[in-house]
Design goal:
This protein is mainly β and 91 residues long. The chain has one domain. It is 12% helix and 37% strand. The protein is built from 1 helix and 6 strands; from the N terminus they run E-E-E-H-E-E-E. Strands 1, 2, 3, 4, 5 and 6 form a 6-stranded antiparallel sheet that branches. The longest helix is centred in the middle third of the chain and has 11 residues. It is globular, with a radius of gyration of 17 Å. 14% of the residues are buried.
Length: 91
């Protein structure tokens, strides 16, 4: 929460970064499928640490971040923080 001026309610701060973790497993035909829904992470360090652990149990893992202005729905280009194994093209 962001402190408010006297007499105003506090306003929640909108995230300035979007950090996402994805993992993939292969199906019976060998195609990559998401192992779970994309997970939003709190910070880069935690995202990379979690991705490194997940890489031991999944065919592929990626975590990325981008600058975000959630109020306007604007997002900057994605920057890969960590990638291991097989990951589909996410463009």
């Amino acid at each position: 929460m962001v402190a408010a001026s006297k007499g105003q309610l506090p306003v929640a701060k909108l995230a300035d970064k979007l950090i996402v973790l994805l993992a993939f497993d292969k199906d019976e035909e060998g195609n990559l499928q998401p192992a779970f829904e994309p997970r939003e992470m709190q910070d880069e360090r935690r995202a990379v640490a979690t991705a490194r652990l997940m890489a031991l149990n999944h065919a592929g893992v990626i975590t990325w971040m981008r600058e975000a202005n959630l109020a306007r729905g604007e997002y900057g280009p994605a920057e890969v923080l960590y990638q291991a194994g097989e990951v589909p093209d996410l463009d």
